[in-house]
Amino acid sequence: MQTDYETEGEKPMKEFEIRKGTPEDIEQIAELYDAVNDYLESHINYPGWRKGIYPVKEDAKDGVDKGTLYVLWADGKAAGSVVVNQFQEKGYETAAWKQEAKPEEVAVIHTFLVHPDFLGRGFGKNLLEFAEEKAREQKRAVIRLDVNEKNTPAIKLYRKLGYCFAGKADLGYGEYGIPWFELYEKSLTGKA
Fold first, then answer.
1. For residue 161, is pLDDT > 50?
2. What residues form DSSP beta bridges with 129?
3. Is 140 helix (H, G, I), strand (E, B) or coil?
4. Sign of the four-CA dihedral 84, 90, 93, 96
5. Are residues 24 and 34 in contact, defined by beta-carbon separation less than 8 angstroms?
6. How far is CA 47 from CA 12, 14, 188, in A?
7. Which pairs from 174-181 meet CB under 8 Å and 24+ separation?
8. Binning pLDDT at 50, 70 and 90, where does residue 126 land?
9. Is the pLDDT reported for residue 12 higher than 70?
10. What pLDDT, on a 0 to 100 scale, did the predictor assign at position 175?
11. Burial profile 16-43: b = 16 or more Cβ within 10 angstroms, e = fewer
12. Cis omega (within 30 of 0) on the bond before 179?
């Protein structure tokens, strides 16, 4: 469990908590996914996600069942989530990864998002740092992710947090209007 505190005088105030998703959380996580997709439909849809296609309740259930989905809770609501597992999409093998690693040494970030009501509070950064810490605890040497090449806000955040560009790949989502993804990685061992 990770928490962050702001100090208000002498009294610490709990701002958020990140914990592993549970079966009891699935409905709230599905509502989080829908809220994000609704927001994307009415704004610029940088990731290219579509309500009813991705992410959906079944994705939350899968992450909870596998113990790989983590939820950031704030103000009593699911304010963000991330999946940290070892599944490398087909297409990752074409990347020019700088960090050589065996498959068992790699962690991968999926379904990383923050509820629109909580944007601008640093929760995206908190979730990524949490994902990195989980990967270190699992003795992974590197963490990788893919992102729609048009998702400039996410790409900016990844680069700011030290993720390195490893190339572009077709991950098979062209039929959904996402022909190319950028691939990023970050060493978790301190090696460049």
1. yes
2. none
3. coil
4. negative
5. no
6. 36, 30, 25
7. 176/48, 176/50, 176/53, 177/48, 178/48, 178/148, 180/148, 180/149, 181/91, 181/146, 181/147, 181/148, 181/149
8. very high
9. no
10. 87
11. bebeebeeebbebbbebbebbbeebeee
12. no
Buried b (16+ CB within 10 A) or exposed e, 52-70: eebbbeebbbebbeeebbb
Q: What is the pTM of this model?
A: 0.90
Q: Which one-letter DSSP state was computed for residue 68?
A: -
pLDDT for 154: 96
Is residue 27 a contact partner of residue 60, using CB atoms and an 8 Å limit?
no
By three-state DSSP, how is residue 151 classified?
A: coil
Residue 14 has a pLDDT of 57
Task: Give the closest residue to 98 by CA, choosing from 184, 156, 158.
Answer: 184
Q: Higher-confidence residue: 142 or 178?
A: 142
Residue found under tokens 């704004």: 43
- Per-residue pLDDT at 10 exceeds 80: no
At CA 157, angle to CA 50 and CA 125, rounded to 5? 90
Residues ≥6 apart with Cβ < 8 Å to 150: 46, 48
Mean pLDDT over each residue of the chain, to the nearest integer: 92
Strands 142-148 and 106-114: parallel
Tokens coding 40 = 């994307």
